[in-house]
Amino acid sequence: xxxxxxxxxxxxxxxxxxxxxxxxxxxxxxxxxxxxxxxxxxxxxxxxxxxxxxxxxxxxxxxxxxxxxxxxxxxxxxxxxxxxxxxxxxxxxxxxxxxxxxxxxxxxxxxxxxxxxxxxxxxxxxxxxxxxxxxxxxxxxxxxxxxxxxxxxxxxxxxxxxxxxxxxxxxxxxxxxxxxxxxxxxxxxxxxxxxxxxxxxxxxxxxxxxxxxxxxxxxxxxxxxxxxxxxxxxxxxxxxxxxxxxxxxxxxxxxxxxxxxxxxxxxxxxxxxxxxxxxxxxxxxxxxxxxxxxxxxxxxxxxxxxxxxxxxxxxxxxxxxxxxxxxxxxxxxxxxxxxxxxxxxxxxxxxxxxxxxxxxxxxxxxxxxxxxxxxxxxxxxxxxxxxxxxxxxxxxxxxxxxxxxxxxxxxxxxxxxxxxxxxxxxxxxxxxxxxxxxxxxxxxxxxxxxxxxxxxxxxxxxxxxxxxxxxxxxxxx
Length: 477
Description:
The protein is α/β, with parallel strands linked by helices. It has helices spanning 37-41, 43-51, 68-75, 106-114, 143-150, 158-172, 188-203, 205-214, 231-241, 281-305, 311-316, 318-332, 344-355, 364-367, 371-388, 394-413, 422-429, 434-439, 447-450, 453-467, and strands at residues 28-33, 58-62, 80-84, 90-94, 97-101, 120-123, 178-181, 220-223, 249-251, 256-260, 276-278.
């Protein structure tokens, strides 16, 4: 089958949205590390809109490890399909990539990073791709960092390439590019800055000081569910378009990119493309963590207890859906401080609407993983703040109780608990009084919280109902 390309654009069905700009006029202004599905469905879609009015912001897609995606982009003239899977689906051709660089093309990458026309570098390489230690700082024992310290002229890591590119800019007397981390790490810009400065100091103290003082590393937050582009999806796209597309991606309609304001002379108008610029990225992160992730975990543990399999099924249960809505809009939203530019109740509405997307199959069993690591931030921080403000936490105790009952069921059935504390959790949940035993785990529950009678009694009262299969009785409160 013929592949998607500039030559085949005209043959696509009329319902497919074409690029709104002259593809041949695109110039490279952005270098992106990690052109996986999320980047192609998210940041690239924003820049595609920017390019409709400003051709300077084409993206050079860089993959340091795998050639698959960049080879597909090269073969397709940088074009690919973005399928929106939602109640109102849509198909759009993205033409945001002006270049693609794969493994072994270090010389081309170095030239691009040194080009003053490139004013932005962005990254989606997952948290582990930054070679950070458990404390969030650069891990000098990481093999890639060991390599980069010894051979700065041939970097192996993303950190090494960023520092190398900035070093070339400094040596040429050129302005630095700004570095935008788009991976979901709290304070991602600050962490990336610290890692780059740390590596640069191993090479040249003056370079480290210049990076620390002159280079923008704004924090950011990104969000949009992006299912994998499996063989079935690619076959569906080929059937719809009449051409093959090996770089096609899919995502829900909702998409969010929150970016800390930063200085960039004559930079792209990201705000016009829908990016939220703010001085309070942390506030948006907390809203997402508590409203979206907190509700996700609540739906997972309660939904599994009620026999549901997916988020859509759980939120479509009238009693559970109503419970989740009240939890989000009253308890969780009520725990948040005002955030610049964010309508918290409106955000909760949008999140709840996303849960009801029938096209997204998000498994509750997967969301339920690693509860000991997630609940302290997704739910327990909200509980703490509501208690401090003198509010009732009975409703917030229900998903915590559902988690304890979930652990109890898993332990009694001899099933695997996917959690770093699996053995400890299984032992506590199997105790004669599982609520008391799990609440006594200081790795999860701080002593002050576990000892607070308002929270402890609410959890202890709810656990027996879940253990007896009567969890639905707790949803009316």
